[in-house]
Amino acid sequence: MTSGEVLAVVLAAVISFTLAVVLVKAIDRLRRKDAESEAREILARAQRDSANRLKEAELEIKEKSIQQKAEGEKDLSRLRQELHERERQLDKRHDSLEQQQDHLRRQEKMVEGTQRKLAEKIEDTNRRNDELANLLDLQRQTLHQLSGLSREDATRRLLDMLESDLKHEAGAMILRHEKKLAETCEAKSREILLTAIQRYAAAHTAETTTSTVDIPSDEMKGRIIGREGRNIRAFEKATGVDVIIDDTPGVVIVSGFDTVRREIARAALTKLIADGRIHPSRIEELVAETQSEMEQNIQKYGEEASQEADVPGLHDKIVHLLGRLRFRTSYSQNVLRH
């Protein structure tokens, strides 16, 4: 190899090395530029992110402050409403107290007026009593002067007149009492005879479970039965007894174990026959009316029995039970009389 070639080779190597160094530096510079640009971009992105986050934080803080403000206003509104309600209730109570005070004042005025009127009436009454006493004294003095009698003579004559009138009234009263006593004795004697007959004629006086009601004609039987039996069913339902209508002329039989119900049914049927208007509504009306009358009669019988036995002050229920005993018999005797 020649020196020229060697030099060329060396020169080529130096050039290649220089180019490589320059290339490396260029590449390094480019890399630095890329890193700086990337760093700037990252920094810008970080700044944008921080700005966005700051804005979001500010927005969130604003929303929370708005929300807290709304809640505070809501609580304040509720408190105001409660205060208004309490004020309204206090005003209402105050008005009520004022009304009560006005009412009390009116009552006090009325009481004062009543007391004043009462005092005036008492005073007027006392004044009139004094005037009456004075008039009586004046009248007695005038009578003494006109009659020419002393007080003792006038008193004696007045007593003589009263004695004569009392003798006349006493005679009339004695006659009235003698007449009443005779009537009472006659009634008592009849009652004693009836009781004796009940005791010793059991075969003729024993109570049965039936009662008979007289009817004017057999045509009345059909009216009592009614169309398809509705009248007789309504009557039996209202009274609780059985009505027996057979071929016996001129009578209708009322059957039942309860003597009070049987008596009510007998009386109600008698009224229906006398009235002539026999239909379910009229039956219910007359039965209710008869029941009311029977209750009054039972109470009256009980009161008469308590007075006769000299046992006043009995309870109404006991008096009622005593009255019901009038319609019961035991061993052919009337239980109430027994």
Mind sketching the topology for me?
Layout: H1 3-147, H2 151-200, H3 202-205, E1 210-214, H4 219-225, H5 230-239, E2 242-244, E3 251-255, H6 259-275, H7 280-308, H8 316-324, E4 329-330, E5 333-334
Antiparallel strand pairs: 1-3, 2-3, 4-5
Helix pairs in contact: 5-7, 6-7, 7-8
**What is the molecular shape?**
elongated
Could you state the oligomeric state of the chains shown?
single chain
Radius of gyration, Cα only, in angstroms? 62 Å
Structural class: mainly alpha
Instruction: Report the major sheet.
Output: 3 strands, antiparallel
Q: Strand order, main sheet: write it out.
A: 1-3-2
Strand segment count: 5
Strand content: 5-15%
Distance between the termini: 182 Å
Overall average pLDDT: 78
What number of structural domains do the residues give?
2
How would you characterize this protein structure?
The chain is mostly helical. The protein folds into two domains: 10-148, no CATH class; 209-334, K Homology domain, type 1 (Ribosomal Protein S8, Chain: A, domain 1, 2-Layer Sandwich), CATH 3.30.1370. It is built from eight helices and five strands, in the order H-H-H-E-H-H-E-E-H-H-H-E-E. The strands form two sheets. It has a three-stranded antiparallel β-sheet, with helices on one face. Strands 4-5 form a two-stranded antiparallel ribbon. Strand 2 (242-244) and strand 3 form a beta hairpin. The chain is elongated, with a radius of gyration of 62 Å. The N and C termini lie far apart (182 Å).
